[in-house]
From TrEMBL:
This is non-specific serine/threonine protein kinase. The keyword Transmembrane helix does not apply. Its EC number is 2.7.11.1. Signal peptide: none annotated. It is an enzyme of class 2 (transferase). PROSITE patterns: PROTEIN_KINASE_ATP, PROTEIN_KINASE_DOM, PROTEIN_KINASE_ST. It comes from Hymenolepis diminuta. GO terms for biological process: regulation of cell cycle. Keywords: ATP-binding, Kinase, Nucleotide-binding, Serine/threonine-protein kinase, Transferase.
Amino acid sequence: MATSESQGNVTEEVKSGNFGFQFKIHRQAYRLGRYGGEFYLRDYSRRDVYLIKVFKQGESERARKEMAILNKLQNCPNSSKILATITGNEKIPLNGIVTDFVAFVKWGDYSKTMTSADIQHYTYQLFIALDACHSQNIIHGSVNPSNLRIDNNNKVLKLTEWENAEEHEDGNFYRTNFNSLYFQSPELILNFKKYDYSIDLWAAGCIIAGSIFKMPYVFDGEAKNEQMQKIARVLGKWKLLSYAEEYKIIVSKRLRSKIRRCRAKGFEIFKTKNCEQTATEEAIDLVKKLLIYDHTKRLKAKDALQHHYFSEFHKKTYLNSKNKDQEHNIQNNSPQVNENSLYSNKDAYLKFVIHGEIGSGVSGKVYRVKDPENYYDYAVKSFERAALSNLWEEVKILKHLEGCPNINRYLGYIVSETMSIQCLVFEFVSTQLWGQIFDKLSVEDIGIYFYQMLLALQGCHSRGIMHRDIKPSNMLIDHFRRKVYLTDWGHATFYREGVSYDTHVGTRKYCSPELLLRYQKHDYAVDMWSIGCILASAVFRVRYIFDGEDREDQMLRIVKILGSNNLLHYCKKYAISAPCLSNWGQFLGYHRIDWRKLITGENKAVATDEAIDLLDKLIVFDHKKRLTSSEALKHPFLNKFRHSFA
C-alpha cells in the first residue's frame, strides 16, 4: 500500500523537477519603474535567475511598445535579451517581459575603482550597444550609471532598462522628463521635444566624464535651472544662447540672466591628482566631442567607436569578452518544454498571449494561453491569493503523476506572492463538452474513452493517489482524436490505510455514498463510483444518473435505484451513523431496481449487457466490493478495446 507524503512546509524538492516551467518571482522588487516593477524570476528547473518586468494595470499599450522595441533589439550586442513576453487582455490585465539576468553591478557602484583600461573597455561596449540600438531607430532615453550593468568576471557591459525608449522618426515630438537630471542633455532640460539619438550620447559623455574625473556627477544641479548653469560654467554661455536661438528654444529671462554671468572654465577644472591616470588627453577629448550644446554636432556612437581614445588593444580585448558573452548566453538559454514546440522561427523567445477563461473551480480559474509564433497552446490554472498552499499540494501530486498515461501533462508553475501570480501550467487540450456529446457516443466511443480514463486512474492509484473529484468537466475529451485526459488535482490526496480524510471533496452528482455519509476512512473506491456514474450517463443517455438537489436528496436518489436494504447493510457494516441525514425515514421502503429497466429505444444501441454489467460492479454501496481500476480494465466490456492502446 502506498504511503502518504509528509505534510508541512514546501521544500525545494517539491519546487524542483523535470518540468519546463518552474518559476518563482521573488517578493522584493529588483527595481520599481514608472510603468511597472522588475523582479527576480528563479527557474527551479535549470537553477537560473532571470528578470521579469510586470507592468501596472492600465499600461498594456506601454507594455506592447516595450515588447516591440526589445524585439527589434534582440540581436543587438551588449543589451538586454528578451526571453519571453506575456500579453494579457481587458479581463486579465497581466503584461510582462522576461529578460536575461547575470549578477551584474551598476556602473556607478564600480566606477570609483575603474582603471583607465576598465573605462576604455566598458565605454567601448557602451558605444557598441548605442550604435546597435540607434541603427534600429531606437532612442534609449535613460542612459545613466544605474542602467549600465557590468559583469566584471566576464568583462561584459549591458545596457538595460528600456521603458523610456522611443522609436525615432524625424520631426516627432517626445517627452523630456524621464532620465535623471544629472544626465539630461541641454535640449531636454530646456524642453526641446524634437530631439534625437544624440541625447544618449550626451548622457554617455556625462558617465565617461564622471568616471575619468573620479566624481559621481560632472553636472550635479538640484533643479533644471541650476543644472543648466553648471553646464554653462564648463561649456560657456554664448554657445548655449546661440544654440537656443538657432533652434528656437525658449530660455526664460531668469535663466538667461543667470547664464550670462557664467564663464567657461572647461573640463580642466575637474582634474585632480586623484584622476591623473584616467583623465588622459584622449579621454577628455572624447568627452568634449560628446558634451556639446548643438545636438547635431555631437559625436555619433559609430564615430565614437573610431575615436583614438580606444586603442586597437582595447578593441581586441572587447572582442574576446564578446565571445565569452556569447558562450555565456548559450549556456544560459531560455527554459524549454520541448525543443520542437517553444522556440519561434521568427524570434528566439517565447510569446504568451492570454486568451479567455476555459474553466473554473474552488481554488481559481483556468485560462487558455497561446504562443502565436509556434502555434502552441497552454492551459494556465490561476489560484486565488489565499490558495497558495493548495498550489504546492497540487504540485506535489503532479510530480508523482509524471509519466502516468492519459493525465493532462503538467509543465510547471509560475508563482509570485507579491503580485498574486499563482499559476500551474499544463498542455492545452482542445476538448468537447460532455454535455454536447454524451448522448451521441457509440459503444466503441464509450469503450475507448472509459478504457483511457481507467488507465489514468490505474496510474494514479498505483502511485498512492486518490483523485476525489472525478467528473466530466475534469475529463478533457479530444473527440476528434478520440483521446481523453484526466485533469484537476485540487481535491487529490495521498492514501494511507486507516487515515481519516476530509469528506468535503468532490462534486455532489458524482459523490460516492461514503462521501455523502461523511465516512472519513474512504479510499480509491470513491473514484470508481464516480467513473460508474459517468459511464451510466453515457450508457443510458442521461445527463446525470443521480441528480440530487442537495446532499440528502442525492443519497435519496441513489437509494431509489440501489435499494434501502443495501444502504442499511452498508451503514451497519462500517458503523456509519450518518448524522448528516436528518430524516432516516425517507430512505426506507425502496427496492433495488434492475438497471435494464432504464433501457429505452434511444439508448438500447449502447446499453449492452456488458456495459450494464460493468457499471453495476462500479455503482455499489459497499466501497470494498467495487471493482478496482485494474479489475475494471479487464472487464469484458473494455477488454475488447485493449488492442487500441497496445
